[in-house]
Amino acid sequence: MMEKISDSDLTLDTGTTMIRPVKSVRDLDVHLDSELTMKTHISKVVSSCYHQLRRIRQVRRLFRQDVAQQLVSAFIISRRDYCNSLLSRLPGSTIQPLQRVMNHNEFVTTRPYETSFEAATFAAG
């Protein structure tokens, strides 16, 4: 018969420090949860990517498409791909938020840009 182990049973006393279990830890910017589902890590990566996408979208009209794609590559794709080998063999439903980020990234980079002259003309007219 298996019984659930309480957190107090998992506490480690080193004499000077009490070490207690936690729900998740971060090492090398990878968030590992207590069940190794990687949901915490994916959630943090997605949040970071959307933040960067919002920032790129704010200045997107100032850049050509190739420059916008370089920004996305530098800030979004590199963040998404960092330690992605840890995500292999996860169910599709778990990694689906990362796919949504990439779909949104396409929307941000494929919108046409306006030169500052076109933007000023449009705003004045």
Give a topology summary.
Layout: E1 12-13, E2 18-19, E3 24-27, E4 30-33, H1 39-59, H2 65-81, H3 92-110, H4 116-124
Antiparallel strand pairs: 1-2, 3-4
Helix pairs in contact: 1-2, 1-3, 2-3
How would you describe this structure to a colleague?
The structure is a single chain. With 125 residues, the chain is mainly alpha-helical. Helices cover 53% and strands 10% of the residues. It contains 4 helices and 4 strands; from the N terminus they run E-E-E-E-H-H-H-H. Strands 1-2 form a two-stranded antiparallel ribbon. Strands 3-4 form a two-stranded antiparallel sheet. The relative contact order is 0.12.
Helix content: 40-55%
Which stretches are poorly predicted, pLDDT < 50 over at least 5 residues? 116-125
Structural class: mainly alpha
Order of helices and strands: EEEEHHHH
Write down the overall mean pLDDT. 78
Straight-line distance between termini: 77 Å
